[in-house]
Amino acid sequence: xxxxxxxxxxxxxxxxxxxxxxxxxxxxxxxxxxxxxxxxxxxxxxxxxxxxxxxxxxxxxxxxxxxxxxxxxxxxxxxxxxxxxxxxxxxxxxxxxxxxxxxxxxxxxxxxxxxxxxxxxxxxxxxxxxxxxxxxxxxxxxxxxxxxxxxxxxxxxxxxxxxxxxxxxxxxxxxxxxxxxxxxxxxxxxxxxxxxxxxxxxxxxxxxxxxxxxxxxxxxxxxxxxxxxxxxxxxxxxxxxxxxxxxxxxxxxxxxxxxxxxxxxxxxxxxxxxxxxxxxxxxxxxxxxxxxxxxxxxxxxxxxxx
Length: 306
Description:
single chain; alpha/beta; 6 strands; about 40% helix; about 10% strand
């Protein structure tokens, strides 16, 4: 059986992918009802077209030229954090009065906390004034650094109200001021475990707390407090550093309600005022701590043993 296909039909079948097998050529070019010469020519054209299609399919686009090599970026440079001890603490601290101590704190470069500070925070009075209380807070925040005084803004107002409720008033920088002249019998000197707030806020290390505690010890000598109120985790950590080390690692809430000791002075631990502003449910516990500190300051409780 043979198919009598004209060139157009064969071309259509070829485009459809249908291959038509042609009979072998005979001596009679007209055998089979078609022109064998023409069919061979068409077959050659079809073969040539298939070859071109095959070549086009096999030709792969040349790869794009590799981009010019860019110079490698220099490695990131980590900002220097500075040495742990930039400069030794001033000598003769045990004999410093308030003005000299304030100058030493302003010029202090004893640890990396001084790097990038704006100003130290120290409520140094003009002259030595004994106080019944020493209230010690955590490292100063931005508002305290700007004011140069401890416990300012809303936390400071809350602390003043708490102290006033037990008959205690904050010691003013100038003891001869009108406000301090009308103060009740008990006064409180306010300070921080660190006098500096670094440019990048971070938690102080144990070594940095120990370095700055030398200023605190002089503050204790000048104020001669009857009780120290530790308000905050870092204040607690420093003031309990002379107790077994595992105690300072416990949560603040577990160390409340007891009397500890630092540099020979009784210590009562409580929550910081900034925390009490956020967690009013603990104000009752803080009130109990204030009453405990008041009893210690008045001598109603026996002093803790060393």
